[in-house]
Amino acid sequence: MTTAQGKLIAGIMASLAELERELIRERVKSGLQAAKVQGKKLGRKHGDTFKQNKHEQQVMKLRSENHSYRAIAEKVGIDKDTGHGNHKTRDSALARGR
Question: The whole model's pTM is what?
């Protein structure tokens, strides 16, 4: 691509690629807008809480004994964020009166 013709062709190809990208972007936006109008929920679904529910009693017991989430995770064999999720889920449910 050192010649003038080569640079011209590269520029044209780059412009066509940019045009195609913009067309795709417009189609995606209009599709999302149409889905919203139809009342569809967009975005990622909430994560599965099976593992949290499975270990909830054990995590709550250890947490009431003032163990850290890291220590709880090591004892129970789960990720510390899973244990923390138990605590947050339970506290938010209690705050809502469930």
Answer: 0.46
